[in-house]
Design brief:
The chain is α/β, with parallel strands linked by helices. About 35% of the residues lie in helices and about 10% in strands. The structure holds iron/sulfur cluster (SF4). Iron/sulfur cluster binds next to loops. Its EC number is 2.8.1.6.
Length: about 375
C-alpha cells in the first residue's frame, strides 16, 4: 500500500484530510508522485468514472475593470495587450455559446469584468440567458459577473442561470497581497448569496502567485467551508503588464500535486482544470485528467488556450470520454465507466498529417533536428 492510499480511503469516506496529510501530498517526492495521482484517480473514478466535463468561457465584457486584482490582465491600470470591449450584443453572446456547445461543452460560463453587475446589467443579461436556455436546454449556464448585491442572485436564478462562479483565489490571510479594492469576505459573501438563491456554487483558486503550501491548504479549507459544487483550479498566467508578470513559480509536477490535494479535499465535487494548464502542466496535461473531471475547452478570457480539437484528442488519447449532458445524468456522481476505454470516441481513422517524410539531416542540405 502506498502512503496515499489511506488518504484516498478517507476522501472516499468524505472525511476531511488533516493539514499534515495535505502537506504530505504537496511536498511528496517525484518518486511518489504517480502514487499520489493513482490515489486521486481512485477517488475521481468512484464519483465521475472516466468522464470529462467540458466548459466553455464567453467573455461578455473584457478589460476596463476598476478593481486591482494583481493576477488579472483586465485590472485597473493593466498594460497587458488584451482585447478590450464593453458588453457583447446578445446575438454575439449566442453565437459564441453555439460555438462552445457545438464543440461539446456541457456548461457555458458567461463572464464579465468589473466589480459587480448593475441591476440593469442583470436585467439585460436575463433575456439573453433565457434565449440560450431555449436554444440549448441541456446545457448549464454559469454566470461570473463579480460581487453580487441584494436580489441579483435571485434574479439570475429566475432567468435560468444554473450556477454562479466567484473564486476565492487564495487564502484570506494573503488576500490583501493580491487585491486592495475588495476583500476576502466580499468574495465569500457573494458565493454564499449565490448558494442561498439556489445557484450551484462554483469557487476555486489560482496557484502560482507566491503562496506557500500552508496558504494553499488554507485556501482549500476556506473553499471547503463554502461547499462548492465545482472548484476551478487555475495556474497563474503571468501576463506582461500586470504586477505578477514574470512570476513563473510553477512546474508541471507541482501543478499535479496541487490538483491531487484539491481532489482529496473535494472528492465528489467537480474539480476543474482551468486557466494556465497548457503553459504550466505542459506535457503532463493528460496525466492531470486522472485527477480532475472537468476542463475548459479552447480559449480563456484574455489568453489563448490549446485548440478545442487538441483538447478533445487529448481526452480520447488518455482513455477518457466527454461528458454528454443530454445522454449522461445531470450530476456526474456515481459509477465508473470501466477502464477499457469503452464508450470513447473512435480513434481518428487517418492521421496522415502525423507522418511527415524527413527532409532534413543526414543526406540533405539542411541541419538535423537535434
Ligand atoms: S479578477 Fe475580475 S474584479 Fe479582479 S481585476 Fe479582473 S476582472 Fe476585475
Amino acid at each position: 500500500m502506498t502512503i496515499f492510499e489511506p488518504l484516498a480511503d478517507k476522501a472516499l469516506r468524505r472525511e476531511p484530510l488533516s493539514r499534515e496529510e495535505l502537506l504530505s501530498v504537496l511536498t511528496c517526492s517525484d518518486d511518489d508522485l504517480l502514487d499520489a495521482v493513482a490515489a486521486a484517480f481512485r477517488v475521481r473514478r468512484r464519483h465521475f468514472g472516466r468522464r470529462v466535463k467540458l466548459n466553455y468561457l464567453v467573455n461578455l465584457k473584457s478589460g476596463l475593470c476598476p478593481e486591482d486584482c494583481s493576477y488579472c490582465s483586465q485590472r485597473l491600470g493593466s498594460a497587458a495587450d488584451i482585447v478590450k470591449y464593453t458588453w457583447l450584443r446578445p446575438e454575439q453572446t449566442r453565437e459564441a455559446v453555439d460555438c462552445g456547445v457545438g464543440a461539446g461543452a456541457a456548461r457555458v460560463c458567461l463572464v464579465a469584468s468589473g466589480r459587480g453587475p448593475t441591476d440593469r446589467d442583470v436585467d439585460r443579461l436575463g433575456s439573453t440567458i433565457e434565449q440560450i436556455k431555449d436554444d440549448h436546454p441541456d446545457v448549464e449556464v454559469c454566470a461570473c459577473l463579480g460581487l453580487l448585491s441584494d436580489g441579483q442572485a435571485e434574479r439570475l436564478r429566475e432567468a435560468g442561470v444554473d450556477a454562479y462562479n466567484h473564486n476565492l483565489n487564495t487564502s484570506g490571510e494573503r488576500y490583501g497581497d493580491i487585491c486592495t479594492t475588495h476583500d476576502f469576505t466580499d468574495r465569500v459573501d457573494t458565493v454564499q448569496r449565490a448558494k442561498h438563491a439556489g445557484l450551484s456554487p462554483c469557487s476555486g483558486l489560482i496557484a502560482g502567485m507566491g503562496e506557500t503550501d500552508d496558504d494553499l491548504i488554507d485556501a482549500l479549507t476556506a473553499l471547503r467551508e463554502l461547499e462548492p459544487d465545482s472548484v476551478p483550479v487555475n495556474f497563474l498566467i503571468p501576463f506582461e503588464g500586470t504586477p505578477l508578470a514574470g512570476k513563473w513559480d510553477l512546474d508541471p509536477r507541482r501543478c499535479l500535486r496541487i490538483l491531487v490535494a484539491a481532489r482529496l479535499v473535494f472528492p465528489d465535487a467537480e474539480v476543474r482544470l482551468a486557466g494556465g494548464r497548457e503553459i504550466h502542466l505542459r506535457g503532463l496535461q493528460p496525466l492531470a485528467l486522472h485527477v480532475v473531471n472537468s476542463i475548459f475547452l479552447g480559449d480563456y478570457l484574455t489568453s489563448e488556450g490549446q485548440a478545442g480539437a487538441a483538447d478533445l484528442e487529448m481526452i480520447r488519447d488518455a482513455g477518457f470520454t466527454v461528458h454528454d449532458p443530454a445522454a449522461d445524468p445531470a450530476t456526474d456522481s456515481g459509477g465508473a465507466d470501466g477502464g477499457s476505454g469503452n464508450g470513447a470516441a473512435a480513434e481518428p481513422a487517418h492521421r496522415r498529417d502525423l507522418v511527415k517524410p524527413r527532409r532534413r539531416g543526414a543526406g540533405t542540405a539542411l541541419p538535423p533536428n537535434a
